[in-house]
Amino acid sequence: MTWENFSKAAGVFCGSFDNPNWFARNPENTVYTFAEEAPKGTVFPAGFPVYQGHALSDGGAINSPTVYPVHSMVTNKAERDK
User: Fold this and answer.
1) Of the chain's two ends, which shows fewer C-beta atoms within 10 Å, N or C?
2) pLDDT given at position 75
3) C-alpha–C-alpha distance, residues 70 and 67, integer Å
4) Close Cβ partners of 57 (under 8 Å, ≥ 6 residues apart)
């Protein structure tokens, strides 16, 4: 993934840290992107913004996220699309 369309944005994948739990994740500092590509078994925590693709459009506008009221697990695409 490149950031050429988002020159004023920075993204950090928390799994890339030696200790991925060194900071508290909350809905104000964490988003989940590319949910449509998430493997079966992925859990999205309740209250966090979840984007099916990019969080930002090509023009830089913020796409609409889904915020699940309860923890939600990816099962399979057919069930997710209901």
Assistant:
1) C
2) 86
3) 9
4) 63
